[in-house]
């Protein structure tokens, strides 16, 4: 059984997407049509997972696929 600790999806969003785009949480929230608080909870690991709604919004914004985010 694979007991590897996988990174939280929010960490991937923060480190691999937002930092790469030099984008603040508030700017990302505005672009995705969500509240800053919602995105902040995800990228700071205070949310257990990424919501289905957010996966769809990320895909629509061109940030991988909803399936990728849902599988994390």
Task: Provide a quick synopsis of the model.
By secondary structure, this protein is mostly helical. It is 57% helix and 0% strand.
Number of domains: 1
Describe the largest sheet: none
CATH architectural designation: Orthogonal Bundle
What proportion of the residues form beta strands (DSSP E)?
Answer: under 5%
Query: Any idea of the CATH topology?
Result: 434 Repressor (Amino-terminal Domain)
**Distance N to C terminus:** 17 Å
Outline type:
globular
Protein name: HTH cro/C1-type domain-containing protein
Organism: Nitrosomonas stercoris
GO molecular function: DNA binding
Keywords: DNA-binding
Secondary-structure topology with pairs:
Elements: H1 9-18, H2 25-32, H3 36-43, H4 52-60, H5 66-71
Helix pairs in contact: 2-3
Written description of the protein model:
This protein is globular. The chain is mainly alpha-helical. It is 57% helix and 0% strand. It has one domain (9-71): lambda repressor-like DNA-binding domains (434 Repressor (Amino-terminal Domain), Orthogonal Bundle). The longest helix is centred in the N-terminal third of the chain and has 10 residues, at 9-18.
